[in-house]
């Protein structure tokens, strides 16, 4: 990262005000212009990202590779030299255009020398090639995506900058390079990449803190490390809160489903065996009965049944208590396996009604029944007693 930062801070120039128009399209029939992801054209492989027609792109590549009448020498680290054409560089990058004008203003003779240091020579070569043909090799992008991001920002080549950000977002971002990519996104004004890399660092904090990139950042930028550590702590705290909320939600759901299970059992018990003051018409209730196993649930259901029998607003929706009773009766009918001999009121009638319900309502009820049955198995609630049995609980 030291060379990267040095590279960004040292590249300064004054851009020219004149903007050259884009060249006109090649005359002739329409050509097939393929962008990234289009790797084949007329049976031959093309580079990973192509923003020009294949024939035109090949022409620009030959011009760059052949070095025909070049007038610019680009010097890189370790004495590397790349030859280029000033007109193409100036049209592709306003920063390079300003540097070339500045060099001419100082009376430099051709060829003009430009220095690009801090990045590998092959990365510089891939960058210059993109200025010619608006294309890049897939392997070069994979190896030099971070240096290409820096150069695209420094020399104002937005097309390449977008390509680098997209490639990082869709596969080239790794645990090893995410810290470097995060720091470069801050320096290169790439807010979306900053958000993505920051999120990845926070979510994979343990692995990231073992990388060389993190150790280098710790030495060179301790303030940034502190901010990231605070973000990690906040994220961990937020994750704990969310996990606790989810745990509470599941616990509440489990309790509700268990209560529904007990209510269904108590409903069958009341109309099959009788309890306290309510029971089947063919059975005499004793004055003094031993308390049943369903306790308050059974008592509450008895009160609800008595209200349901005497309420004048029994139509569903007219009374909140009656509506609750209708729902309990319908839920029972969906769980009951033998409606013909069932003693719970309206069980058979509701079975017929269920067949005429809308698909949307049917799905909701099926989900509820499924969850109740699953809760019964997990929570250890008793199996529903057969409602036509004559045995006492």
TrEMBL record:
GO terms for molecular function: calmodulin binding; zinc ion binding. One of its GO terms (biological process) is protein ubiquitination. Signal peptide: none annotated. InterPro entries: BT1/2/3/4/5, BTB/POZ_dom, SKP1/BTB/POZ_sf, TAZ_dom_sf, Znf_TAZ. It comes from the Eukaryota. Keywords: Metal-binding, Ubl conjugation pathway, Zinc, Zinc-finger. Pathway: Protein modification; protein ubiquitination. Pfam families: BTB, zf-TAZ. Residues 70-140 form the BTB domain. PANTHER family: BTB/POZ AND TAZ DOMAIN-CONTAINING PROTEIN 3-RELATED (PTHR46287), BTB_POZ AND TAZ DOMAIN-CONTAINING PROTEIN 4 (PTHR46287:SF11). This is BTB domain-containing protein. It comes from Gossypium raimondii.
